[in-house]
Design goal:
The protein is of the alpha+beta class and 123 residues long. The chain is built from 3 helices and 4 strands, in the order βααβαββ. Helix 2 packs across helix 3. The longest helix has 23 residues.
Length: 123
């Protein structure tokens, strides 16, 4: 199982059109957040010499989001989607193979997400 600590404020998933991703402020903020998260995934993958998880393999994700205040400022499911979308193409090929998701949130000292992604055991 691969473990990651993603620091910084996560921008939850935002619905957008093809054009909207270039002109809508919320969509642009989401895209920037995705790049920052993906960079942190890539950095950890390189530090640990990890290879991308195998294709066509059921995966499991455990996500704990911490925030210093306003814990319920956004939907947890949209934050989970943002975390998994950013991992796509870096940690695993396609998020359609994520069969198990365990997610939670709690107050913490800073904005961060503790993430473990690996091969699902209950298949």
């Amino acid at each position: 199982m691969y473990s990651f600590v993603i620091t910084g404020r996560l921008k939850p998933y935002v619905r957008m059109t093809r054009l909207g991703q270039y002109v809508d402020a919320q969509a642009k903020e989401y895209k920037a957040s995705q790049s920052a998260i993906a960079w942190q995934y890539k950095k950890r993958m390189l530090e640990c010499s990890w290879a991308m998880l195998p294709e066509r393999t059921p995966l499991s994700a455990h996500i704990l989001v911490e925030a210093p205040k306003r814990l319920h400022a956004s939907d947890l499911d949209n934050t989970v989607k943002a975390v998994l979308d950013a991992a796509q193409g870096v940690v695993f090929k396609n998020d359609l193979w994520v069969d198990e998701i365990h997610a939670g949130r709690r107050l913490g000292m800073e904005y961060r997400a503790l993430i473990r992604i690996g091969i699902a055991q209950n298949q």
